[in-house]
Amino acid sequence: MTANTGCDSVHVNFTNTSTNVNKFYFFYDDGSDIDSVSLKPHTFRLQDTSLDSIIYYPTLLSRDDPNCRVFYHDTVKIYKTPTNTKITSDINVGCAPLTVHFNAISTTANGWHWDFDNDGKIDDSVQSPVFVFKKPGKYRVKLLALNHGSCPAIIYSDTINVVFNAKAAFVPSSKSFCGRADITFENKSLNLNSFIINYGDGSAQDTNSFIKHFYYFDSSKTVLDSFSFYPKLIVFTAGGCSDTTSDTIIALKPPIAGFKSSTIGGCSPLKVHFTDTSKFSFGTEWDFNNDGIIDAYGRQVDWVFYPGVYTVKLRSISVNGCVDSVVKVNLITVNDPPKADFNVSDSIICYKGEVQFTNTTTPSQKVVSWFWNFGDTAAPYNTSRVKDPAFHYYSFGWHNVELFAVDNLGCSNTIKKRSVFVVDTLPPSNTALSYVSVNDTSAITISWRRSTDPLFKYYKINRLIGGKSINIYTSSKIDDTIFNEISPAINTSGMSYCYIIQTINECDRISITSPEHCSILLSENSTIGPANALNWSSYIGWSPKYYLIFRSDETGIIKLIDSVNGTTLSYIDTAKLCDETYCYYVQAVSDSGLISRSNITCLHAQYVRLTSPLNMRYVSDLNEKQIKIQWDITGYKNLTAYVIDKYSAADGWSKNYAITQSNSFVDNNVDINNESYTYLVEARDKCGYTNPPSNIGTSILLKQKISSDNVVLNWNGYHTWRNGLKNYDLQVQLKDKSYKIIASTKDTTFTDDSVYHAIDTAYCYRVIAYENAPGNDSSVSNSTCAVLPSRVFVPNAFTPGNGDSINDEWKPSAISIYNVVGNKLKSFNVRVFNRWGSLVFEANDAYKGWDGKFKGVPVPIDVYIYFVDAEGIDGRNIHLRGNITIVK
User: Fold this and answer.
1) Measuring CA to CA, which residue among 490, 580, 569 is closest to residue 530?
2) What 3 state SS string does 615-632 have?
3) Could you tell me the CA-to-CA distances from 562 to 146, 395, 544, 567, 580 in Å, in that order?
4) CB of 616 closer than 8 Å to CB of 697
5) What is the pTM of this model?
6) Alpha-carbon distance 47 to 179, whole Å?
7) C-alpha 830 chain-centroid distance
8) Digit-coded pLDDT (tens) for 98-111
9) What does the alpha-carbon distance between residue 622 and residue 33 come to, in Å, rounded to a whole number?
10) Cα–Cα dist 509/29, whole Å
């Protein structure tokens, strides 16, 4: 069937799909006639309109020849379209936005699709929906009512009339304020005809115009920090529609600012304590000079004032951010105290020396009293109230002098200065030597610390010789702390030199002698093989932390080579030393980084060079693409690499062609079939020295040519084995790729006149040279291949099956032809026909012959015709035709 469900009626097409049927009967189940000829389209109808639906059961009865029967039925269901459906609503006219309650009434429908604004979209799917019409206009609501069979009925409501409404809106000038404020209201309403505004504070409503309204925080109405007012606006249209809106205005409790100070005047620096006495305050900001910059925060604050008159401002902030300020103009007055100071006639004096003090306190005209403390309790008196006193000092060292001054307002100031140094009767403190260092063979540098003696007069440097102290230098410059002694009498390579220093002050007192400092004497001990041994004297003056060892070679470049601890006084240089002279010096380094250098000493290293040449064992072809070189290993311990030189006729000698640590080398850059190459090898040691070149090794280049079906071979002789050449083996390659010796000779030419019946193989040769010594080192040449002229020989008769087992097979003989079975381009082909043109034999393999049979049966004695087609390795095409005679 094409369809089996419909509304009110349905048209159904039936198709009989029965098999093996002889006769059928079709019952429509709606009172229609029975069909037994063919199945026809049929329309089913809801015959009883009082029903909501009806089901028909069309049935097919089929039978075959034996009168066997079978039934098949299906269903057709008809639904009644919903009727007596209508829409009701609780209101048909009103102001936008208008809320309407709808209800669908139907006896048969059970599905609802509502479209309230006629936009083609389903807005709801319940039987009693609620919809809000937001825009003014006239609306007819559309309802699609469905029954259980989804049969639709479309119903429209009465017209819903939605009229324009007013839109209430206003904006207050502020929504919060501190304490009190005038608030202005701006009317933003639309479509209004009249309005009523209630200010929310109990005052009268306004209906004529919006006015400025005064609000204030009334603390009698609340104990909280804020109070809220709720103004409300109602607007009306001419048609009686209305809209209402409201807002909130918050009144915040303000603080009441106030403060007090501990004092209002005094001398600088004046410390004043301030107390915040504000009410309802949460935060406090202080401005102590009324410059707009906050100086401090908090309810209790101490502040230090300097000379001047100050206006103080307090800014009090409530918890809601409300602010109140109080300003007290010219509240604090601070007087400038005197600035005590003085000068001395001399800051460094000798024992019992006099110092005159000059009072420089300012302003001097306002100072009324002075008090001095000279800082020397050893003197007969130690204080004074004189303006400009003089004083004699009796104790050694620095003295702190204090002056206390008071002005006419009672303000005071004190100054205390380290002013006078008294030199003791003891010798002055001595400086110390920093280091003594060798500069050259006849030059030494002496360095010392700068003197701290306040009465410094000069330095005195002495050199110690043979138990005597000889003055070599004096200097009255306190910052002069280094001296270079240059003298032909000095020989730093022969001895160590020691020095001391003394300091003399202005009282001509001499310090004690400093500890001596002595230079380092470096001497060579000996050369131990290729190593150099050094010894040196310890640096005297401070304990070295470590010694640095420096070395230079014949290039003059100086390098730091090692370091040893401060107690080690010898060193063996076992580094890479060559056959040359090396010079050394050492440096002592102290914990603080001071350095003293020794003299320079030079040694020539005992170095053994490699003098014997290497033995080149062989130069040989490796794989038709490379040449391998092999030489004997040397036992030289300083060897670092082997250096290979190469000669070719095209490029000449290539020095340093390759460098390797192995005793063999494979050369990839060769054309082995067209050129011979010569090599020699040298050993290079760690100093870059090389031994004499080895004997040369020359690769063998083998060449060939064809002459009268003979192969003529020639090659260059192998050079050079120290023990000479034993012989050359000439080899030919067999079909399995192995080689066979065909001759041994000492000549460098050979003619091969042997006969080889290699049908599809070229003649490939190589030469192997052998050394005339035990072990037989050898050199292999390149291989070269010769191709003889291609030919095919065909016999003209044979005697198969005559019982003598002689000449029983007919087979052509060939030389230098392709015999690739299955390859049409390089194949061999032979065919034999009888006199009537019938093919009796064919072969594609030159090694296969004919036994005189066709399909296993001997052919008659007769003359037969053959055809031979072949391609020579030399490129020649061969086509032969002739006769074969079979005889018995």
Assistant:
1) 580
2) CEEEEEECCCCCEEEEEC
3) 107, 55, 15, 15, 20
4) yes
5) 0.43
6) 88
7) 75
8) 899 999 998 788 89
9) 107
10) 153
Sorting pLDDT into bands at 50, 70 and 90, what band is 425? low
For every residue of 435-474, which 3-state class applies, written as one string? Answer: EEEEEECCEEEEEECCCCCCCEEEEEEEEEECCEEEEEEE
Q: How far is the C-alpha of 8 from the C-alpha of 79, rounded, in Å?
A: 6
Q: How many residues can be counted in the chain? A: 888
Structure tokens at 230: 């709720």
Helix (H) or strand (E) holding 429: none
The whole-angstrom separation of Cα 616 and Cα 628 is 12
Count how many Cα atoms sit within 13 Å of the Cα of residue 61 in the half-sphere of its side chain: 10
Query: Facing residues of 79 across strands?
Result: 7, 53
Instruction: Label residues 665-701 b or e (16+ Cβ within 10 Å = b).
Output: bebeebebeeebbbbbbbbbbebebebeebbebbbbb
Closest CA to 279 of 218, 225, 215: 225
Percent of the chain scoring above 90 in pLDDT: 56
Following CA atoms 653, 656, 660, 661 in sequence, which dihedral angle do they give, to the nearest 10 degrees? 120
Cα 241 from Cα 166, distance rounded (Å): 7
Q: Which of 399, 411, 287 is nearest to 351 (CA)?
A: 399
Q: b or e along 577-613 (b: 16 or more beta carbons within 10 Å of the residue's beta carbon)?
A: bbeeebebbbbbbbeeebebbbbbbebebebeebeeb
Angstrom distance (rounded) from CA 574 to CA 96: 109
CA angle, 296 then 298 then 301, to 5°: 65
CB 367 within 8 A of CB 407: yes
